Amino acid sequence: MNSHTSLPVPVRLEADIYRIFFSTRDREQRSSVCWVDIVIGEQPKVLRSAGVPVLVPGDDGTFDDSGIGVGSILVDEAGGHRLYYMGWNIGVRAPWRNSIGLATGNARIPEFGRFSAGPLLDRSPADPFSLSYPWVLRGDDGLWRMWYGSNLSWGRDKDDMHHAIKHAWSGDGLNWIRDGKSVLAPQWPREAALARPCVVNAGGRYEMWFSYRKTTYQIGYAHSHDGINWEREDTLNLGPSAEGWDSEMVCYPCVFKHLNKRWMLYNGNGYGASGFGLAVEEWP
Fold first, then answer.
1. Helix/strand/coil for 99
2. What is the DSSP letter of 248?
3. How far apart are CA 24 and CA 29, in angstroms?
4. What is the pLDDT of residues 232-246, one digit of tens each?
5. Are 74 and 81 in contact (CB under 8 A)?
6. Which residues are paired to 112 by β-bridges?
7. Burial bucket for residue 269 (CB in 10 Å: 0-12, 13-18, 19+)
């Protein structure tokens, strides 16, 4: 835990106590998954933090040997947890290459292990360049749905990235079908990328929070009746502060409901280098 608390995702332990999982970097800039327990309420406070990571980069040559970016965590059929994540490799002709992997275990212990040495979703005709942060929901009908990032083009520099959000579906959460179509794309050339979706199904109406990048990242919002056709309303969202740790950017939102309010975990300056924060929804 040399730097960064990026991509925070909550798991409720009991009452007002949540375990927040996040990606943190070592001195070589390789990211692992760690956690911190916090009380969420009128005066949030930290209770304890991880002494060791729950998931570290893979062996040399594997899809996640350069780091792990937290996507989403959800309960599985056996009462344990699935952690869907982005694994990344350092590139040569392009800066990096990402794939989507899965770890299984129990967030309460906490303990996770790789489902497989290889990724669940990798480059393919549907996603020829690179994939990123997956968000997974399981519907009442048993259908698993994933929203994830995918490069539409790539280049020698990270600023060459043109990155959209796509959709996949599965009967078991392991074998995924994808058609390669973007369900939410950046408004090119004004925007270069949309990344790290967080999707909530609110009674049949889907809501998505995501990061969008112009010169720096900000938080966007969209809603949908089917999870595929989305309408953006970015003005409804949290913006950077006038000064301080989140004055340069806000990014990587994760929204959840607690105490009859909606809360947002998010990162500020430096993609999480300055830490993560907590926002609460303002009711009309």
1. strand
2. S
3. 9
4. 998 878 899 999 999
5. yes
6. 105
7. buried
- Total number of domains constituting the chain: 1
Token pair 């300055």: residue: 274
pLDDT score recorded for residue 241: 95
CATH of the domain at 9: 2.115.10.20
CA angle 177, 264, 178 (to 5 degrees): 5
Cis ω for the linkage preceding 189 (within 30 of 0): yes
Phi, psi at 235, each rounded to 5°? -70, -10
Tokens of 180: 């390669």
DSSP state letters, 13-80: EETTEEEEEEEEE-TTS-EEEEEEEEE-SSS-EEEEE-SS-SB---STTSTTTTBEEEEEEEE-TTS-
283 pLDDT exceeds 70?
Answer: no
Cα 220 to Cα 80, 87, 175, 266, distances in angstroms: 31, 24, 29, 12
Structural domain boundaries, residue 107: 3-280
What is the sign, positive or negative, of the torsion defined by CA atoms of 219, 224, 227, 231?
negative
